[in-house]
Amino acid sequence: MTLQIPEPTAVLEAATRIKGLANHTPVHTSRTLNQQTGHQIYLKCENFQRVGAFKFRGAYNAVSQLSEAQKEAGVVTHSSGNHAQGLALAAKLLGVKATIVMPDNAPAIKKAATAGYGATIVTCPAIERENVCAQLIADHGYTLIHPYDNPNIIAGAGTAALELLQETGPLDLLFTPVGGGGLLSGTALAAAATQPDCRVIGVEPATANDAQRSWQTGEIVRLTVVPDTLADGLRTRFVGEHNLPIMRQYVSDMLTVTEEEIIATLQFLWTRLKLVVEPSAAVALAPAFTGKISQPGQRIGVILSGGNVDVSQIGQLFAS
């Protein structure tokens, strides 16, 4: 089967499709952050997006383009939480039944929100979620809306970066967290469409560096176990087949950060900037915050991917 890899213009088309439905989220700046890092940093706050994360953008873009027969049969996906919520809401708005396969260790707040949008939840061990999803498709004829390995998901995700780039003007660097690669791929396409000189950089936890290794080798590296990282949205074991070619063509570098760096960045975002984001979002800021950018005075964009987090859990983390 030949892959249909989206072009940069697909992000522009997605932006038109979701206009008025997805929130145009704010861009936050901080004198304290700029002084501490030596850069001019622009934070795209997708924690203020519908469902609390960028995932609604791609989900609506994908479901809205299904045929009437596919909408009638319903959709299914597997997700630890943000895509689950995004798809559940998109399906509700479009009158489509949604079934979500969620790992049994997914945050309770994300499970509750997904159910609140009217989706049916099926839980299973994280390592089995793809298999359970495939069985549901075989049994019920659902259409899979993959959380990241889907051209329309990728294009929709890229609209967050598109808005950022249109608002800030020229950027030197644009950082995005990486799980399966949907947000990074979409971000890279958005930059290619509007600011091709902007260097797009993916960031992932050091314990989950399958995307970095895949990007380096050109072959999808598959982890045998679910990564152990605080950033629950980035616990994917491999990037998508649609994502890697885009990453290889348009992404300039791939970095990793430690759990300690994620926590330090998260604490700064919460306590100094008053931005309640999830650990996966902090991952994208961590390289700049922890001094990993060698050239000073850069204009840097950061996609803060979401804010769906167990507040009590993070409070205990900061207290330890």
What does this structure look like?
It is a single chain. The protein has 320 residues and is α/β, with parallel strands linked by helices. It folds into two domains: 9-52 and 155-319, Rossmann fold (3-Layer(aba) Sandwich), CATH 3.40.50; 56-144, Rossmann fold (3-Layer(aba) Sandwich), CATH 3.40.50.1100. The protein is built from 14 helices and ten strands. It has helices spanning 9-18, 31-37, 55-63, 68-73, 82-93, 108-116, 129-140, 151-168, 182-194, 210-217, 243-250, 259-271, 279-289, 311-319; strands spanning 27-28, 40-45, 75-78, 98-103, 120-124, 143-144, 173-177, 199-205, 251-257, 299-304. Strands 1-2-10-7-8-9 form a six-stranded mixed β-sheet, with helices on both faces. β3, α5 and β4 form a beta-alpha-beta unit.
Task: Provide a short characterization of the protein structure.
The protein has helices at about 10-20, 30-35, 55-65, 70-75, 80-95, 110-115, 130-140, 150-170, 180-195, 210-215, 245-250, 260-270, 280-290, 310-320; strands at about 25-30, 40-45, 75-80, 100-105, 120-125, 145, 175, 200-205, 250-255, 300-305. By secondary structure, the chain is an alpha/beta fold.
